[in-house]
Design a protein that fits this description.
- By secondary structure, the protein is α+β, with helices and mostly antiparallel strands.
- The chain contains six helices and ten strands; from the N terminus they run αααββββαββαββαββ.
- The strands form two sheets. It has an eight-stranded mixed beta barrel with strand order 1-2-3-4-8-9-6-5. A two-stranded antiparallel ribbon has the order 7-10.
- The N terminus is likely disordered.
Length: 304
C-alpha cells in the first residue's frame, strides 16, 4: 500500500477543518479574518484559515515514491562489496566511463569533519591506496530515495599521470568527459544506488566552483536550496533543460581540477569540478538524450 507524505502543514489544515465543522454544529461561523479560540501562544502560533478558503486547496497529496529493490548484477556487486567492508553504502556507475564502483562512508563516534578524509587514501580493504575510494560525505543520510539527504555528495580523486584533467585517466577524472557537449547530451544519467533502492539521476549542471560555495551541505531550507541550484546552473558549462525544485533530491559528484596546471597551487586546490544530477521523479520520461546548449558566460569561481 502506498503511504502518503503527511506534512505538518497538512495536519494543521486537517485540524482546522475539524474546528470549522465543530463551529458549524454550534450554530457559529467565524468571520473572515477574525481570530478563533483561545489566545494562548500555543494556539495563536498555529496557522489561521479564513472560513472562505477551502482548507484542502493546494495541498500536496503526492504519495511517497516507492523504492526499487536492486536486482541481478547490481545486487550481486553491492553484496560482494559489503561483505568485504560494511562501510559500503552504495554503488556509483556512469555509463561509458571507468566509473563503476562501490561508494563508502566512514562516520566516527561522534561524527567529525575529518571523517571525510578517511577513505581519501584507502582502498575498500582499508589499506593505503593513492587512488582512494569513492566516498559519501560523512553527514549524508544513506538509504532508499525517501531516506536520502536532500543533497547527496560523493567525492573522488582526479588522477592523471602526465596531463592534468585528462578525461581518459582514472577515477573521477573520467567525469571531465562531460566537458564535451556531444558526449554529455548522450550521457544524461548517472546511476547511484543503495542496497535499498536502485536509483537513476538526471544531470542538470556541469560546473566549476570554488570551495567558498556551500555546495556540500546535506540539507537546505527551500530558499537556500533554490539559491544553490541557481548557482550551480549559473556556473554550469552548459544550459541543460532539467528543472530542480526543493522537493527533489540531488546528487553531486565532486572532484579536483587544475585550472592553472599547478602554476598557482592555491587556486587549483580551491577549485572543484562538479557533476550535478537530480533524482528522476516517479513516472518521469527518461529520453536517451538531453537538450543542452553551451553556456556563453558561465559564472567563474570566486577566489576573493
Amino acid at each position: 500500500m502506498k503511504r502518503l507524505h503527511l506534512s505538518n502543514r497538512l495536519i494543521a489544515l486537517l485540524l482546522a477543518i475539524a474546528m470549522l465543522l465543530t463551529m458549524a454544529a454550534c450554530g457559529e461561523r467565524a468571520k473572515p479574518g477574525e481570530d478563533e479560540g483561545p489566545s494562548s501562544s500555543d494556539v495563536s502560533s498555529q496557522p489561521k484559515i479564513p472560513a472562505f478558503i477551502n482548507p484542502l486547496e493546494d495541498v500536496d497529496l503526492t504519495p511517497v515514491a516507492e523504492p526499487v529493490a536492486p536486482e541481478g548484477e547490481l545486487l550481486e556487486k553491492l553484496n560482494k562489496a559489503y561483505n568485504v567492508n560494511n562501510d559500503v553504502v552504495g554503488w556509483i556507475r556512469v555509463p561509458d566511463t571507468l566509473i563503476d564502483n562501490e561508494v563508502l562512508q566512514y562516520v566516527s563516534t561522534p561524527p567529525q569533519a575529518s571523517d571525510n578524509l578517511y577513505y581519501e587514501r584507502k582502498d575498500i580493504n582499508k589499506n593505503y591506496s593513492f587512488y582512494g575510494c569513492y566516498w559519501a560525505d560523512y553527514e549524508n543520510k544513506i538509504g532508499n530515495r525517501n531516506e536520502l539527504s536532500q543533497n547527496t555528495i560523493i567525492y573522488g580523486h582526479s588522477m592523471s599521470d602526465t596531463i592534468r584533467d585528462d578525461p581518459e585517466q582514472d577515477k573521477f577524472t573520467q567525469l571531465k568527459k562531460y566537458l564535451d557537449i556531444e558526449w554529455a547530451k548522450k550521457h544524461p544519467y548517472i546511476y547511484f544506488s543503495t542496497a535499498e533502492d536502485d536509483m537513476t539521476w538526471k544531470v542538470f549542471a556541469v560546473s566549476y566552483v570554488d570551495t567558498k560555495l556551500s555546495y556540500n551541505l546535506p540539507e537546505y531550507k527551500d530558499q537556500n536550496f533554490n539559491e544553490l541550484i541557481a548557482e550551480l546552473k549559473d556556473r554550469s558549462q552548459f544550459d541543460i533543460d532539467v528543472d530542480v525544485t526543493p522537493s527533489d533530491k540531488i546528487l553531486i559528484l565532486s572532484t579536483c581540477t587544475y585550472p592553472t596546471g599547478y602554476t598557482n597551487k592555491a587556486i587549483d586546490e580551491a577549485t572543484k569540478f562538479l557533476i550535478c544530477a537530480r533524482l528522476v521523479r516517479p513516472g518521469e520520461a527518461t529520453p536517451d538524450t538531453l537538450e543542452m546548449a553551451v553556456n556563453p558566460d558561465p559564472k567563474k569561481p570566486q577566489y576573493s
